């Protein structure tokens, strides 16, 4: 949810990074910039999940200071290859260069302009089919497993604890680990965290702000009752 205060609270709580969601969230570029600033203020890394392979959107998010772009809804190897190109400058990529933006310190400071991460989500069965070729691509810094979308494609939307979902997720992890590509996913409790960590997962998304708020207020009402 776009909110510098919420973003700051999460950062102060000790989270290493936040994903600011422009795919499902209500962000515009102004609110996104404010939340990136809130992350920076507390040394919490701001990643942005964009709406897709839109070159101008990705470029603007990076210019605002996103330290990584999370790419959703990728299907085939061409999608994943383009994602790697959108975060890089010529000659390796397609990103336009302007040193007078926030990510470059508004004037091409040598300490600015750190290379952002390319984080690609595997959340379609087609991407799973192409995973071996995708993992061989240069420039992918992390694979994030989209368990919810995969559950929908497997015919059990939202039921991410179904055996067929769990088996598919584990097979993706195994391939990523074998290819030495960092892999991340969402976990709901310490048991899941420990189990997936033992399989080789190295990046964990622990919660969603809207869900946490809903649970907190619901628990408050239930306790009063």
Number of domains: 1
CATH class: Alpha Beta
Approximate strand percentage: 5-15%
Number of strands: 7
Count of DSSP H/I helices: 10
CATH architecture: Alpha-Beta Barrel
How do the strands line up in the largest sheet? 1-2-3-4-5-6-7
Poorly predicted regions: none
| Helix/strand order | HEHEHEHEHHEHHEHEH
Which class best fits the helix and strand makeup? alpha/beta
> CATH superfamily name?
Phosphoenolpyruvate-binding domains
How large is the radius of gyration?
A: 18 Å
Tell me, rounded to a whole number, the average pLDDT: 95
Major sheet characteristics? 7 strands, parallel
Account of the protein in words:
- The chain has one domain: Alpha-Beta Barrel (TIM Barrel), CATH 3.20.20.
- Helix content is 45%, strand content 14%.
- The chain is built from ten helices and seven strands.
- Strand 6, helix 9 and strand 7 form a beta-alpha-beta unit.
- Helix 1 runs parallel beside helix 2.
- The two termini are 29 Å apart.
């Amino acid at each position: 949810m776009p909110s510098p205060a919420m973003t700051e609270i999460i950062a102060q709580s000790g989270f290493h990074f936040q994903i600011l969601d422009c795919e499902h969230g209500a962000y515009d570029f102004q609110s996104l910039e404010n939340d990136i600033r809130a992350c920076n203020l507390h040394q919490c890394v701001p990643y942005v999940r964009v709406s897709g392979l839109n070159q101008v959107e990705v470029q603007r998010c990076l210019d605002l200071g996103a330290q990584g772009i999370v790419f959703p809804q990728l299907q085939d190897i061409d999608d994943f290859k383009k994602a790697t190109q959108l975060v890089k400058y010529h000659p390796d990529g397609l990103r336009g260069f302007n040193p007078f933006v926030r990510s470059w310190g508004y004037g091409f400071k040598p300490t600015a302009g750190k290379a952002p991460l390319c984080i690609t989500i595997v959340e379609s069965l087609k991407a799973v089919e192409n995973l071996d070729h995708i993992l061989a691509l240069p420039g992918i810094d992390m694979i994030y497993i989209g368990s919810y979308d995969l559950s929908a494609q497997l015919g059990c939307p939202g039921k991410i604890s179904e055996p067929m979902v769990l088996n598919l997720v584990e097979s993706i992890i195994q391939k990523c680990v074998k290819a030495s590509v960092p892999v991340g996913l969402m976990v709901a409790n310490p048991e899941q965290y420990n189990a997936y960590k033992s399989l080789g997962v190295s990046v964990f998304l622990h919660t969603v702000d809207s869900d946490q708020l809903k649970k907190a207020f619901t628990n408050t009402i239930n306790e009063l009752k």
